[in-house]
Amino acid sequence: MEPLAELDARVTECAACPRLVAWREEVGRVKRAAYQDWTYWARPVPGFGPPDASLLVIGLAPAAHGGNRTGRMFTGDRSGDVLYAALYELGLASSPLSVSLDDGLTLRGVRVTSPVHCAPPENKPTPGERDTCRPWLVQELEVLAPRLRAAVVLGAFGWQAALPAFAAAGWRVPRPRPRFAHGARVTLERGTPGADGPGQITLYGCFHVSQRNTFTGRLTPAMLRDVLREAAGEARVPPYAPLDSRPHAGG
User: Which of 51, 64, 78, 135 has its CA 20 to 30 A from that of 216?
Assistant: First the structure.
């Protein structure tokens, strides 16, 4: 088994946080009325994307009736609708829709993950749960490191969780730690300067694709595309098709 696939399989078996285990399983039993016919995933949700990804998108945690239902990051909820539509328009996803594990969606050069792999009550993991889950993100970064060139971090929580993970995976994080802002850009070095092997990575801050942000216009589709486009250029991700041939939504 490939290292990333093996890591993803181990993630799905984690039961380290009792509160999150109880919540994800309760949600899977009770269900939302619209999804009564679904068999909920109700386990930790691994990252999604190819093992040779040079661009990483880091969110917060799976949604109770999104990833916790479908088993894939940002799949089956409105946040995912916004994210994957943007990735598709930039030629980084094979479809603008992310509905279920068997919908055929693939990503090109991009992987989507989060610092917390279980759905938390009210979408709010505790600091302790964030820290307990950090080793999974660290291991993911270590596996991706040889090709990873850029990361888009969605929201302040993700930013605060990601920086220690990058540090633990061998990148040098400036002191004081850079503050989150939409449009923030920070370059981290890894290893000995000038040496062969994984080197620098550029982090981009972006408001989270939450309904609160997208419904109020704090984050528009155009704003999201701009950040993803810049990061994809830094990561040298070739799109599925020329950008000017992709559908372009207003916003």
Answer: 64
Task: Give me Rg for the CA atoms of the chain.
Answer: 17
pTM: 0.92
Give a yes or no: residue 93 inside a domain.
yes
Q: 70 near 57, Cβ under 8 Å? A: no
Average pLDDT over residues 55-61: 97
Question: Token pair of 95, please?
Answer: 């479809």
DSSP collapsed to 3 states, 100-149 = CCCCCCCECCEEEECCCCCCCHHHCCCHHHHHHHHHHHHHHHHHHCCCCC
Window from 2-16, 60-74, 182-196 with minimum mean pLDDT: 182-196
CA dist 70 and 74 (Å) reads: 9
For residue 249, being part of any structural domain is answered with: no
* Sheet-wide strand order for 201-206: 110-113, 55-58, 150-154, 201-206, 185-190, 171-172
Q: In Å, how far from its chain's centre is CA 44?
A: 14
Q: What is the CATH number of the domain that holds 226?
A: 3.40.470.10
